[in-house]
Specification:
Distance between the termini: 43 Å
Shape: globular
Structural class: alpha+beta
Largest sheet: 5 strands, antiparallel
Strand order of the largest sheet: 1-2-3-5-4
Helix content: 40-55%
Number of strands: 11
Order of helices and strands: HEEEHEEHHHEEEEHHHEEH
Length: 284
């Protein structure tokens, strides 16, 4: 079991899924005639194993823990159809299992110098932003969900940061959703660790957490993430460069960064002070 999945042992539904995993893997191995290797070490919400199909094709078997953010991952990959993202080779919705194209050598974009990595993303992102609707959850709906939960989570955590920051995020979550631009397919966790070097294309996106919303939200994970440099100056530089080169509204993108960063700072067992600090960098 990859260390990143141990958190699932802390609650009943997670333990039940972990207990089922060997049977799920075996069932997929037989159904898709796979030869499997040891799990990839990086994992948080799914188990991924290198696989080889009967024709010798390299693939990845991914068994998802059913959660809100990964819902409709297979549909997102199908819509992209290999255009800048890994191909979906097979899908078993009852087992939450996906058989995916394997990226080889599979090194992450985060290993490039930050400026070179941003060059790649400026070219890649417009290819991913395809017009979309159902079955994907609207960004506006997700924003409402964040706004409804944030005040209670802030109170339950003992008011761990200034009210001004909370109010800034809530203002953004109120103002941005009804005034969005064209609705396109977005991956709300598209940081530089989720873009891998490959052979069919130089770089391919993996692990979509799909939403449908405006393009300005599509750069949030790259801006707030630490993969391409840490600190307020680096993060604001990413915001400036991506909005400028992709012709995005910088103020709207900043608002989405603030809102999602603070919403994702909370978990059932507390909050992440590092994420809160990132949110502060983007408070107007």
């Amino acid at each position: 079991m990859p260390p990143g999945l141990t958190w699932l042992q802390e609650f009943q539904e997670g333990r039940a899924w972990v207990d089922r995993l060997p049977r799920l893997v075996e069932a997929c191995e037989q159904a898709w005639a796979l030869r499997l290797g040891e799990p990839f070490p990086y994992a948080f919400a799914s188990l991924a194993l290198p696989a080889t199909r009967v024709d010798g094709t390299a693939a990845v078997l991914k068994i998802q823990f059913p959660d809100r953010e990964s819902e409709h991952e297979a549909a997102a990959l199908s819509l992209w159809d290999g255009e800048g993202a890994v191909r979906l080779l097979a899908h078993d919705s009852t087992r939450h299992a996906l058989l995916l194209e394997r990226c080889e050598p599979g090194t992450p974009l985060s290993e490039l110098p930050p400026d070179a990595a941003l060059d790649i993303m400026v070219d890649l992102l417009p290819r991913l932003w395809k017009p979309a609707a159902e079955p994907f959850r609207p960004l506006a709906e997700e924003a409402t969900w964040w706004a409804e939960r944030l005040p209670d989570r802030w109170e339950q955590a003992g008011r761990p940061f200034e009210r001004r920051l909370l109010e800034g995020a809530l203002e953004a979550l109120d103002a941005l959703p009804p005034s969005q631009g064209e609705q396109v397919l977005l991956s709300q966790d598209l940081h530089a660790g989720n873009v891998l070097r490959a052979r069919r294309e130089p770089w391919l996106v993996i692990d979509p957490k799909p939403l449908v919303g405006e393009r300005e939200f599509g750069i949030v994970a790259l801006v707030r993430g630490k993969e391409l440099g840490v600190g307020p100056d680096r993060a604001r530089e990413r915001l400036s460069r991506l909005t400028g080169e992709l012709s995005l509204d910088a103020d709207r993108a900043r608002g989405w960064v603030l809102a999602q960063t603070l919403a994702w700072a909370f978990a059932d067992d507390g909050f992440d002070p590092g994420q809160v600090e990132v949110a502060r960098w983007f408070l107007a």
